[in-house]
Amino acid sequence: KGSPGIRTVFANAPSGAVIKNALKDLIESEDKSAPFNDDQLVERLKTLGYNISRRTVVKYRDEFGIPKASLRRE
To answer: What is the 8-class DSSP label of residue 19?
Structure first.
């Protein structure tokens, strides 16, 4: 009969590239006089259906070479 296979909770999870693009879009569209901090970015991503940690947001932001909120303020 065989085994039913291993199922993971990640089977339908969006790829890192999709989340990175969503993060980049959020940062590009933010109000430059009051940019989102990392915690706010996590919350915004959650509203889009991406449940990732603040540490992951920092990692992706660093990969893009995007500084933290206080350095993005204009």
So the answer is: H
pTM: 0.80
Q: Which helix (H) or strand (E) segment is 60 a member of?
A: helix 54-64
Q: What is the pLDDT of residues 13-53, one digit of tens each?
A: 678 899 999 999 999 999 999 999 999 999 999 999 999 99
One-letter amino acid at 17 equals: A
CB 57 within 8 A of CB 45: yes
Plot region of 53 (φ>0 → left; ψ -120 to 50 → alpha; else → beta)? beta
Q: CB within 8 A of 16, min separation 6: which ones?
A: 60
31-48 burial: b if 16+ Cβ within 10 Å, else e: eeeebbebebbbebbeee
